[in-house]
Amino acid sequence: MTVVIATRDRRERLLATLDRLAALPERAPVIVVDNGSREPVAAAARRHPTATAVIELGGNHGAAARNAGAAAARTEYVAFNDDDSWWLPGSLATAEHLLDRYPSLAVIAARVLVGAERRLDPASAVMAASPLADGDLPGPSVLGFVACGAVVRRSAFLEAGGFERRLGIGGEEELLALDLATRGQRLAYVEDVVAVHEPARGPRPGRGRHTLRNSLLVTWLRRPVVDALRRSWELLSRHGDRRQAVLATFDALRAGAWVVSERRPVPRALARELRALD
User: Fold this and answer.
1) pLDDT value for 264
2) CA dist list (Å): 122 to 38, 128, 191, 195
3) 3-state secondary structure of 278
4) 71 in a domain, yes or no?
5) What is the mean pLDDT of residues 115-143?
6) Given 47, 60, 138, 205, which residue has the most CB atoms within 10 angstroms?
7) Which of 214, 212, 209, 205 is nearest to 178 (CA)?
8) What is the pLDDT of residue 200?
9) Domain of 124?
């Protein structure tokens, strides 16, 4: 197991996370990927004894920064952290055991606890109640995950292309989840694998717009036409900010040529599972 951390301009948070990883009993190697920081993050990471390697990308690759870390890893499994998330003791060992035991399992979606209060992330609650048939999995079958609390089978992750750079950060997991599932890989939510996420407080301008834009893009990249029309209407009609919804739609339309060139609808069985999750 290798831990990969993507970071940008948050040196103090990164160093605190490295301290927490240093205290884990698993002692996993840690690769830090600097996503084009404007402050000396990479130099600080290199001085920390927990960082096994530091990769400087020279620009902001968004979620795709994690791809560079996974490619550089020399272990079969990779656990993703952000600079504001970390693993509870024993979680990485549990994940390693389960990935050994279930060869079709490509992603373990961890139970994510948020903030100092350690409240359950809403995405974890949704995954725990997944209506999909579990099959031979260590937890509910899912078609998504929270990237800062996920453990992946490195070979499956890289073969599926990793995270798409065009999506940046915000809903970047969905496209990768669908591409893994299309290739016959499985994803499961496992409560015994636990990550803590302490995001910075305060508003994040544009995040809702960007996440909605990504959801629309993934919908048209991978859903059959009728499903894509229905899903797009659902996403837009339930968005709380009408102005942001309109702007997100225009953002998605600007990427239309890319969507047309990369559109590959999922198999029918997978489309049915998506409708069940909707």
Assistant:
1) 98
2) 32, 10, 14, 14
3) coil
4) yes
5) 95
6) 138
7) 214
8) 78
9) 2-197
